[in-house]
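User: Please predict the structure of the protein below. I'd like the answer in C-alpha cell form so I can feed it into my own downstream comparison script.

Assistant: Understood. Taking the following sequence of 152 residues as input:
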Amino acid sequence: MTVTVAQEAVRQPAVRALLEQSWALSDALYPAESNHHLDESELDVPQVSFFVARRNGQALGCGALMRVDEIYGEIKSLFVDPSARGLGLARAVLTAIEAEALGQGLALLRLETGIRQPEAIGLYEATGFRRIPPFGSYRDDPLSVFMEKALR
C-alpha cells in the first residue's frame, strides 16, 4: 500500500467527490448556520494550499491551509473517505498542512470543527491543538469547537 500526500489542484473530479462527501456529512450533522465549509471556488485561490492524500493513486483524503494573515493560517476541508478511515490519512494531511504553514513562516494554525465529530477533535488534541474562543469572523456557536496550535 503506497500512501502519498501532495499539494494538488482543487478542481478535479476525485477531489470534488471528496468535498461533496464532506459537505453531505456536515449537512447531516449540523444546521446550515453552523456549517462553514468552502466550495471549490473558495479553495481555488492563491492564499489556499490544498492537499490530497492518495492510496495507490486513489484520492481518499484532503485538506487545506488557508493563509489568513502573516501570523496564522486556518485548516479547512480536512476530510477522509469513510472507507479509508483508520489508515492515518487525516494525520498525514494534517502533517503536510503544518509543514506548509511553517514553510510560509506562520506562527499559528487555527480551525473550527463541530462537537459531533469526536474523532476529529481527538486527532487535533492528540497533535497539539488546544481549544480557544471563536476567532476571525466566527461567532460563538454551541455546535462549534475552535482550536489553535502554536507552530513556533
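That's the full C-alpha cell string. DSSP finds four helices and seven strands in the chain.
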